[in-house]
Amino acid sequence: MVFQGLADRLQQTFNKLKKKGKITEADVKEALREVRLALLEADVNFKIVKQFIDKVKDRAVGQEILGSLTPGQQVIKLVNEELTELMGGTQSKLTISSSPPTVVMMVGLQGAGKTTSSGKLANYLKKQNRRPLLVACDIYRPAAIKQIQVLGQQLDIPVFSMGDKNSPVNIANAAIEHAKRHGNDYVIIDTAGRLHIDEALMDELIAVKGQVSPDEILLVVDAMTGQDAVNVAESFHKQLTLSGVVLTKLDGDTRGGAALSVKAVTGCPIKFAGMGEKLDALEPFHPDRMASRILGMGDVLSLIEKAQEGMDQDKAKELEKKMRNAEFTFDDFLDQMEQVRKMGPLDQVLGMLPGANKIKGIQNMQVDEKQLARVEAIVKSMTKHEKQNPEVINASRRKRIAAGSGTQVSDVNRLLKQFTDMKKMMKQFTSVQKGKGKKKFKL
Ligand code: GDP
């Protein structure tokens, strides 16, 4: 899971702090020392770590902690706010040009995930009823044109290509004319990459930029490369003045330092995060939600958005209403499980839940189809009344349900517990919403 190590360490530190009724300046100092080490271990740039700790310390020893009834939680709140700030504060959205098409130029080193991210971005826009056009401007890497054409076919998105005999500047230019004629409102240009930054590459990118004046120049960087990703971003930004960064492979076993440093070092916001190889694994980057995920507060909002993507809008609205009114039943639970199945790797989905990283083994969890079938059988063995009022399911009913579904009573018990936990989580979420975030830090 993203930031697993960092999340574990920070949460250990804060758990110690939360247990104390009163905290002294020495407690805060000790906690911040541990936060500092955790950040360094997560491969965050050391200068950024120093600035970060100084800021939190300044605020912590000032008025904000003293006089507070829950000093431990106050420190967590401070760290959460500063982590959010470090990653850019608020979400940085993709520009929309007032005179379409909006031109997005994708740049980056070879292997960073540029072509895949171009496809993912086009897919993301298509889901929002946009009409993107993908452009194959990498004329050097042998299979690059083919790769983007295959992506286009899979996604049912048009790809503009002129083979490898024309210059990227000409191709980009012709693509924009094509988009204007065909009503494409976004043009996503997949440019060439190299293994290392070199002058010829930069000259070519500068020439394309000069010709098409893109609304966005997004640098695709691989989060697995840690501080190298930050250095690459710095170099590209110097030459091209980037408008944003797409950080890929955040689903891997990355320490996360790049995500936490890139904005602070370069000033470029992270606009999207790649969370897997599949073509729907691209998420808009929300600094506040990412900070909450790191601190184990979960990212319920992203989870819900992900769920909504997978289901039809009416169903989503109905579910939201049910959650708000705590009317969630076993029928909805079953429905949800089906949706989750469609959403992708379960570990990623569960990773967004508050406190999920405390559950052992969640990192490598796969959707266990057998387990899902068992749950389905149990729910289907319940009466309508039981599904809507699970509290009536007493011992004899449990026995009957187990027999009816070919499972053990312990399986039924486990499911009932899961369901209750899920309801509890929803309650927490709705109270956070109602309280406008006031209760966010009460874990
Ligand atoms: P390019 O050379 O920059 O165009 O890179 P590609 O788009 O060809 O991607 C290189 C490899 O990284 C491919 O195997 C992709 O499937 C993989 N990849 C890209 N983005 C992600 C991501 O977010 N997560 C994971 N796990 N793999 C990714």
UniProtKB/TrEMBL annotation:
Domain SRP54-type proteins GTP-binding: 269-282
Positions contributing to GTP binding: 108-115, 190-194, 248-251
Pfam families: SRP54, SRP54_N, SRP_SPB
Any single biological process term in GO: SRP-dependent cotranslational protein targeting to membrane
EC main group: hydrolase
EC number: 3.6.5.4
Record's subcellular location: Cytoplasm
Keyword field: Cytoplasm, GTP-binding, Hydrolase, Nucleotide-binding, Ribonucleoprotein, RNA-binding, Signal recognition particle
Coiled coil regions in record: none
Reactions this protein catalyses: GTP + H2O = GDP + phosphate + H(+)
Source superkingdom: Bacteria
GO cellular component: signal recognition particle
CDD domains assigned to the protein according to its UniProt record, in alphabetical order: SRP_G (cd18539)
Primary localization: cytoplasm
Family from the record: Belongs to the GTP-binding SRP family. SRP54 subfamily.
Domain notes: Composed of three domains: the N-terminal N domain, which is responsible for interactions with the ribosome, the central G domain, which binds GTP, and the C-terminal M domain, which binds the RNA and the signal sequence of the RNC.
Role of this protein: Involved in targeting and insertion of nascent membrane proteins into the cytoplasmic membrane. Binds to the hydrophobic signal sequence of the ribosome-nascent chain (RNC) as it emerges from the ribosomes. The SRP-RNC complex is then targeted to the cytoplasmic membrane where it interacts with the SRP receptor FtsY.
Subunit details: Part of the signal recognition particle protein translocation system, which is composed of SRP and FtsY.
Protein name in the entry: Signal recognition particle protein
